[in-house]
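step: validate -> pass
step: tokenize input -> pass
step: predict -> running
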Amino acid sequence: MLTFAEAIHDGFGQTFRVDRLVHYEKTEHQELVVFDNACFGRVLALDGIVQLTQHDHHVYHEMIAHVPVLAHGAVRDVLVIGGGDGGVLREVLRHEALRATLVEIDARVIETARAHLPFVGADAFDHPRAEIVIGDGLAYVRDTERRFDVIVVDSTDPVGPAAALFGESFYRDCARRLTPGGVLVTQAGVPFFQGAQVAQAHRLRARLFAHATVYLAAVPTYTGGPIALGFASDADLVPGDLPLLRERFAAARLETRYYAPDVHVGAFALPPEVRTLLQGA
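step: predict -> pass
step: emit ->
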């Protein structure tokens, strides 16, 4: 029996039965694997770490996309760093007045997603309001003159190509590329296992933005409890005005499986241990 063992935490890991190996390659940047599993459907892993599964990716993609867009309320331009599977791109483009630019360092992730993960990005890569850039997100944010209302950093954990996306210089460049009142949202890690990582990244964002925190989402394959998503802005948008969020959600005519305005507000209600983690950062 073929298995896939993920062991990103010292002393703990999770194992998936590989019912069918769909794709494997070593790209210029990372090891890329796609396989099928009876519990989670199709699975994408990069450098030995599960990035998404067919049955629970919607939780992460809906929460990392709709929370900043609806919190802001007047988004026109979104920048997605990473996210080569197309899930964030697809979700943000569901907001009809919005344009999105995706910057992905590894073209093979996009090509593999097109071929083997159509349920994630659907036709987002070819959407007329989408621009796809193959390149280093760090360099793009540093060098572009464009400004964005929302920047979503949909990165892997801070190893390999993604390590620099958790650094102060990158966050500083993001702050410069946001319009007034703009929002930065980042994949921050699972507090139970990656508390130091969550705290360090929060500390950097808190130096650069008037308002910085994290919010939580429960994604079964991101083991160890809810994953934290970093949220930073010069505007005070947390936790959000529930009636206003309901109004914006209704106007957007979204059909979601996990995100809802009350879930949006509740996601910022942090357990004491997570609040302590951020306060000690």
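step: describe -> Residues 11 and 36 are 26 Å apart (CA to CA).
step: cleanup -> pass
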